[in-house]
Specification:
The complex is a heterodimer of chains A (174) and B (761). With 174 residues, chain A is an alpha+beta fold. Chain A folds into two domains: 4-79, Ubiquitin-like (UB roll), CATH 3.10.20.30; 88-173, [2Fe-2S]-binding domain (DNA polymerase, domain 1). In chain A, 37% of the residues lie in helices and 14% in strands. Chain A contains six helices and five strands. A five-stranded mixed β-sheet of chain A has the order 2-1-5-3-4, with helices on both faces. Chain B has three domains: 26-34 and 465-608, Aldehyde Oxidoreductase, domain 4 (2-Layer Sandwich); 147-425, Aldehyde oxidase/xanthine dehydrogenase, molybdopterin binding domain (Aldehyde Oxidoreductase, domain 4), CATH 3.30.365.10; 427-456 and 614-761, Aldehyde oxidase/xanthine dehydrogenase, molybdopterin binding domain (Aldehyde Oxidoreductase, domain 4). In chain B, helix 10 (345-351) runs parallel beside helix 11. Classes of the chains: A alpha+beta (174), B alpha+beta (761).
Chain lengths: 174, 761
């Protein structure tokens, strides 16, 4: 079996790898590049745990072939923080306790970031439908949705009403 | 080993416990750094795969793996012979008992395949592609046998028999012939006939529930490495590394201390990761190949071959007087165990009526094997199934006597001193407080429109303690390394370090938790039974108190005063005798430890007892679309007694997560089989768990009735939240439509059928 030589950009770094025809982008990220932050929950595009950005578009890495990454830009959870500064979504997820086991968290963060890049002021309904492709079995989604809404408010530089309420709940206990 | 710890309930003002700090492991989990079961790679690693039965029930006449073995790149092929055949022996796992004879047969079929997806062989090869090709070269000669997947059909005398040596335990007289009924249990007291004779109203109904899967997003995964001298290491996603060690050592014929098991981060378990599937196979393959072997289940394999919880057939009868007093309660529960005995019918029977104070009560349960995957624990195993049916009948009784369902429950609520249907008297519990909070909640007064309905249900779960070890190692700079043996499945590193910081009187940032592997601590029972914050917390508190004793002793030595004149306050040793005030911080004492007596550590090895039951009441409003049968959750409020919420955000998270899992169970989730006993929906597309857009915000109210047996009053909180939802939602849907719903899930076609047939009559 001849493997394909692929050159691509992952989180701003130029990388090259060899992959078999049937290997998915997720297989390549995890097993060839050891970027295991993207998770495999179903390998059928139903759980969203492998959500990554491909040329600025949110995709399930399990539904993309490794060879399709040729000449394109891939962004994963490993590239979300800059240096020791977390992306506001990462920080707010921690503050809101918006994760329990954490297996869905990378995919949800990547998907939520994609949402906020196209819609800076989403409604609760918009957040819920945007994240409908990312399964979480632990949280019941409540704290995740609040964290996304609160981050959106923070990033707009204004504090929305729901954000204020959520923020208050976090700081009251601390 | 201490069997009992004097609780010494902390009454001082708390500085850390009860606050909402960031979790210690949070950074790794938002950056993708956290290593879960499938995230480990090691040099020279092989990939393992499992060949599974395509039949629901078949005799394995022969297996020919010679072609697979001959394939280039294949390094090991195993069948059941690679594992020990073991005698029947029961051991605890979570809240259930397991049998080694069954475990070895479940991880790899011997003689017979008992369900579609039952493992029959496994291979390890240099790549996943080669392993997959090798599987296709294994020739299995099956004799297909008649199968049975329905619980009541399986109980018939002429049903296909799964195990020809299974004689019902608990049946009187002892049966003369084998059957699929593994066990009969019965609980209760009083005089049912007299109780029903006193009743003004009697409601009697039958219910069915379908098997539902825990639905953790992370599939089972492990990496095993056995060296040439038999020493073995295993990395795996599990709720209990010590249980994995115990099971695997037994199946492989090893000493437990030859095998070091490290629990990876765990991507959800809900009870489903309390048993072994791939782990013994990976070890056996690695032992044969003398190379590390990694195995990961596909989602299809997770559905076909790992444990869902039971589907069941239930019958409930309750009588009450017009003033709302329940006079008698009777139940018959038939639970599917899957291919091997061990459904959670016993805990289900014990807690079916546990939220009620009853004079006359009986519950009979049957554990029945069928040609489906062996069930595994699922969050409050057995409880949600039984309490769904009971709470539906209680709702109907309240309706018939025209009484508010919350008032009805308040009138009959179990409280401290109530004799539980399973025997003992209950200690302090918070059911009444949750009902009062429900009645006072604004949700309960919110107006409802056409096609909308409101449901109420309460729920009970026992919670457990068990064997627990923990260590606190004080570093020379005063920072504290905390080692616990219970995997952190949803924030226990946070709750446990908070209790350590509170006891020691030091800032939380100086406590650094790790989950120890099996060689770093004594035996720990697993993360299950809502026991970790209770049991590991108790061990941490004891270890911290041991550290404080040592610190007081060191300060006394430095000051040359009796230890009795040194107290520990706010992270400092303080001299309480007459004379000049003296004080030394934990950091100062740690720095001089080498000169004052050596390293400062605290260890605890306990058998935690006195776990307190946690009770809950849930309120839900639904809207039913009369044209499609779709049920929309409009409002949801979960109210629960936590004893003490150490980190309230993670307590709320448990309540919200349990409620939404319950919404899935109530409305959509079910295993669908074809007539050959093959699962038709082994994937997240067709086995649809709730997604973000299916549910509203889940409001929470935490009630705190302290558990007197824990230093901070902690009860477990993780399991109870999935007990009330199905009953509450069934009641809400029934009120919205005027039709009583008795079968789960209440999926659109079923709801539509019920509405249509109601209109037709």
């Amino acid at each position: 079996m001849t493997k394909h030589h692929v050159e691509t950009t992952v989180n701003g770094n130029e990388v090259e790898f060899l992959c078999a025809t049937e290997q998915t982008l997720l297989d390549v990220l995890r097993d060839e590049l050891y970027l295991t932050g993207s998770k495999e929950g179903c390998s059928s595009g139903d759980c969203g745990a492998c959500s990554v950005m491909l040329d600025g578009r949110l995709v399930c890495a399990c539904l993309v072939l490794g060879v399709e990454a040729q000449g394109r830009k891939v962004e994963t959870i490993e590239g979300m923080a800059s240096g020791d500064t977390l992306h506001p979504l990462q920080q707010t997820f921690l503050e809101h306790a918006a994760l329990q086991c954490g297996i869905c968290t990378p995919g949800i963060l990547v998907a939520a970031k994609a949402l906020l890049e196209r819609n800076a002021d989403p409604s609760e309904t918009e957040v819920r439908f945007w994240l409908a492709g990312n399964l979480c079995r632990c949280t019941g989604y409540d704290k995740i949705v609040r964290a996304v809404l609160d981050t959106a408010a923070q990033m707009r530089g204004a504090t929305s009403k729901s954000g204020k309420a959520a923020k208050k709940a976090v700081t009251e206990g601390a | 080993m201490n069997d009992m710890i004097i609780p010494d309930l902390v009454e001082r003002e708390l500085k850390v416990v009860g606050t909402r700090p960031l979790r210690p492991d949070g950074m790794d989990k938002v950056t993708g750094r956290a290593k879960f079961g499938a995230d480990m790679h090691v040099p020279n690693m092989l990939i393992g795969r499992v060949l599974r039965s395509p039949h629901a029930h078949a005799r394995i006449k022969s297996i020919d793996a010679s072609k697979a073995r001959a394939l280039k790149g294949v390094k090991a092929v195993i069948t059941a012979d690679a594992l020990c055949d073991l005698p029947s022996e029961f051991v605890p796992a979570g809240e259930m008992m397991v049998n080694f004879r069954d475990i070895t047969r479940n991880v790899m079929a011997r003689d017979k395949a008992l369900y579609e997806g039952h493992a029959v062989a496994a291979v390890a090869a240099t790549s996943d592609a080669v392993a997959a090709q090798a599987l296709s070269l294994i020739e299995v000669d099956y004799e297909v046998l008649p199968h049975v997947i329905d619980v009541e059909k399986a109980m018939q005398p002429d049903a296909p028999l799964l195990h020809d040596d299974m004689y019902t335990i608990g049946a009187d007289p002892k049966p003369e012939k084998p059957s699929n009924i593994a066990k009969r249990v019965e609980f209760g007291f009083g005089d049912l006939d007299a109780g029903f004779a006193k009743a003004d109203v009697v409601v009697e109904r039958e219910f069915t529930t379908k098997p539902v899967h825990q639905g953790y997003i992370e599939p089972h995964a492990c990496l095993a490495s056995v060296s040439e001298d038999g020493q073995a290491e295993l990395w795996c996603t599990t709720q209990g590394q010590f249980i994995v060690r115990a099971f695997c050592a037994k199946l492989l014929g090893m000493e437990v201390s030859q095998l070091r098991v490290t629990a990876s981060e765990i991507g959800g378990g809900f009870g489903g990761k309390t048993v072994v599937y791939l782990e013994p196979l990976a070890l056996a393959l690695s032992r044969e190949a003398c190379q590390p072997v990694k195995m990961v289940m596909s989602r299809t394999e997770v559905f076909q071959a790992s444990g869902p919880t039971s589907g069941a057939k239930l019958w409930i009868k309750v009588g009450a007087t017009k003033d709302g007093t329940v006079t008698a309660a009777d139940a018959l529960l038939k639970y599917q165990a899957g291919a091997f005995q061990g459904s959670p019918v016993q805990p289900g029977a014990m807690c079916a009526f546990a939220p009620y104070e009853l004079e006359n009560v009986r519950v009979i349960g049957f554990d029945v094997v069928v040609n489906r995957p062996k069930v595994a624990a699922y969050r409050a195993p057995g409880g949600p199934i039984a309490e769904f049916a009971v709470e539906s009948v209680m709702d109907e009784v309240a309706l018939k006597i025209n009484m508010d369902p919350v008032d009805f429950r308040l009138k009959n609520a179990a409280k401290e001193g109530t004799r539980a249907p399973y025997g003992p008297k209950l200690g302090p519990i918070g059911l009444v407080q949750t009902l009062q909070a429900a009645r006072a909640h604004e949700h309960y007064a919110a107006p409802l429109k056409a096609n909308q309905g409101r449901g109420v249900a309460s729920g009970f779960w026992f919670n457990i303690g068990g064997e627990t070890c923990a260590s606190l190692n004080v570093g020379e700079d005063g920072s504290v390394a905390m080692v616990v043996g219970t995997p952190d499945i949803g924030g226990s590193r946070a709750s446990l370090s908070m209790m350590a910081a509170e006891e020691l009187g030091i800032p939380l940032e100086h406590v650094h938790p790790i989950i120890g592997d099996t060689s770093s601590l004594g035996f720990n029972f697993l993360t299950g039974g809502s026991r970790v914050t209770f049991s590991s917390g108790m061990a941490i508190v004891q270890a911290a108190r041991e550290v404080i004793e040592i610190l007081r002793d060191r300060a006394a030595k430095l000051w040359e005063v009796p230890m009795e004149e040194v107290e520990w306050v706010d992270g400092h040793a303080r001299f309480t005798g007459s004379g000049e005030a003296k004080s030394l911080s934990l950091v100062e004492l740690a720095k001089t430890a080498g000169k004052t007596g050596g390293p400062i550590i605290g260890n605890a090895a306990i058998n935690a007892t006195g776990a307190g039951p946690s009770l809950a009441t849930h309120l839900v409003d639904v809207e039913v679309d009369p044209e499609t049968g779709a049920v929309k959750i409009l409002r949801y409020t979960a109210i629960q007694d936590a004893g003490k919420a150490v980190h309230p955000s993670y307590v709320e998270g448990q309540m919200q997560g349990g409620a939404v899992q319950g919404i899935g169970w109530a409305l959509n989730e079910e295993y669908i089989y074809d007539d050959k006993g093959r699962l038709e929906n082994p994937g997240f597309l067709d086995y649809r768990i709730p997604v973000c857009s299916d549910v509203p915000m889940i409001d929470t109210v935490i009630v705190e009735v302290p558990n007197p047996n824990h230093p901070y009053g902690v009860r477990g909180v993780g399991e109870t939240p999935i007990v009330p939802p199905m009953g509450a939602i069934a009641n809400a849907v029934s009120h919205a439509t005027g039709v009583r719903f008795t079968d789960l899930p209440m999926s659109p076609p079923r709801v539509l059928d019920a509405i249509d047939s109601n209109q037709a009559t």
